[in-house]
Amino acid sequence: MSLPFFEAVDWPRPWYASVAQAAERLQGAADDLTALNQQARTLALHNHRGLPLSFVTQAALPMGTAYEVFISATGRVPTRANLHDFFNALVWLSFPRLKAQLNAMQAAQIERAGVGQIRGATRDAVTIFDENAALLVLREGAPGHEMAEALRNHEWQQVFLEQRSRFAAHAEVWLFGHALMEKLVTPYKAITAHTWVVSAPDAFFDLPHVARRAWLDEAVAHDLAARDPVDFNTRCFTPMPVSGVPDWWAGQGADFYADASVFRPKRVK
């Protein structure tokens, strides 16, 4: 693999902040896998079994072996020469504990029920998290709780426009899903993340960027590990159009958020 992907990605975009440091460390490398594996060794990354993590070509995945099971059993991540897998590798370098926990959950579900044509509720949720999640970090206490409820009720204008300064003071959005990052290479207004709400103490918001990312990696991985898989499903996520995050898109006025084709009202059951 070579590194032709840097030119395709607008790295200063705010939605790439969660993996920008990992990408920067790879810039100028002549070969993806060599550079990725050097970083994995430097960071002493490992999978949930404690096996050293490495990135290998897709050809290393034996025919008939599930991708998730292979990573779980070997610590080796099959990586194709495309943007999708490149972002996946960047997320591994940026959130290694959380990625390892998701892989552990996938492998456990496959061991229990096999691969099958239907993944089941837990594997569906893990896949959505891995591919399309954003971590919505809200300050502990009333402001964060109120914003979480408002977003669950799709009160977009209230959170993103009318209370814009409140959002800036008490909330952060960190992209995690590698497919979501890939879609945002050619951004359009309707791209929507599945948000995972994280409650964080006041001290979190005073930490430097690297320390905040490490806190999130540890805290969310711990949360998922402690959950009963039966209670982990797609209803655990809150949809959120990425373009709505304050200052992530141009022209975020009242008309922008009034676009019901993107900022859809809560469906009445």
User: Major sheet: order of its strands?
Assistant: 4-3-5-6
Classify the helix fraction into a percent range: 40-55%
**Derived structural class:** alpha/beta
Number of strands: 6
Please tell me about this protein's structure.
The structure is a single chain. This protein folds into two domains: 6-122, no CATH class; 126-257, no CATH class. Helices cover 45% and strands 12% of the residues. It has helices at residues 20-26, 32-42, 67-74, 83-94, 96-113, 121-132, 142-152, 156-162, 164-170, 178-183, 209-226, 254-257; strands spanning 54-56, 76-78, 133-139, 171-175, 192-200, 238-241. The strands form two sheets. The protein has a four-stranded mixed β-sheet with strand order 4-3-5-6.
